[in-house]
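Progress against Task 2.4 (sequence-to-structure conversion) is shown through the following example record, which the project officer requested during the mid-term review.
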Amino acid sequence: MRKLNRKIDVTAACRTEERIYCAVTVIAPEPADIGTAPRVMFGWPGGGYNRSYFDLHITGAEGYSQAEFHAGAGVIFVACDHVAVGDSTVPNAGLDHPDIARANRAVVAALVEELRHGALLEGLGPVEPAAVIGMGQSYGGLLLTLAEANEPIFDGVAMLGWSGINTTPPTPLPGSPGWNELAANGATHPYRRILHYDDVPESIVVPDLCGWPLRALGEPIPPWGARWMPGGPNAKIKTSPVTPGIVEAEAAKITCAVFIANGERDVCPDPRLEPTAYRRSPDITTFILPRASHMHNFAGTRKRLWRKLETWSAGLIKAD
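Structure tokens generated for the chain above:
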């Protein structure tokens, strides 16, 4: 298996003269094991997380890397940082959601073009992807919706813990009285129950939630965490990810296949209503992951979701 870190120039997509790069990690089988028409999956994390969410390596534990799971089935997996997240550029420009979504799409276009010209992986000649799939977890689902609705590029999109109708976090909201005191200790975080199921080890929960999502205030950041939300401290975001109907119009424009996954405890008020958001999609799959909360890749049942995604994405392979 190969892993390659890259930075993709997305300046033009952001419509700014400031040079901006998005960081990605390509996780792929050895070229001899890829074949002539691989599936390519792109994954974007939620707010407060970087691309390592899809390639988790936790001290003393194994089997947390979704990227390695799919690569083991012959998939080329690209774990992506949003603008201002992880190793991506933190811009001075006041970007908004459409800007960030265009940047994410530009990453896909650039890497798929490299794949088609044999420039993505050393030793892998030109290949045509059998299917190009985008996955967005939480906040990543918002930006994936905008990207695909406004300039389609995917054969399928997976919305993981994101509602096309109304993403609804529990109360209290960040910034409420007493929030900082409770959130400073991951063990007492107000969102512990909605983000992590009961069997997730304390060794994961505590560093993951310590200060989340206000890590910009100086709290320590776990390897999979992010200092900034997408767009960074200078972003000009007009609406919150939890604004009711924030992507209603865009979700209704999506015409590719849609996979909708939620944990048993999550932020979608009624997962069974989610297909109604994607009125033009001809192929909608829903799945509720048992014994899981919003952060699916930390759940003890995470591989059930990955297997579902593997089967679903294989069904998107273009054929006569």
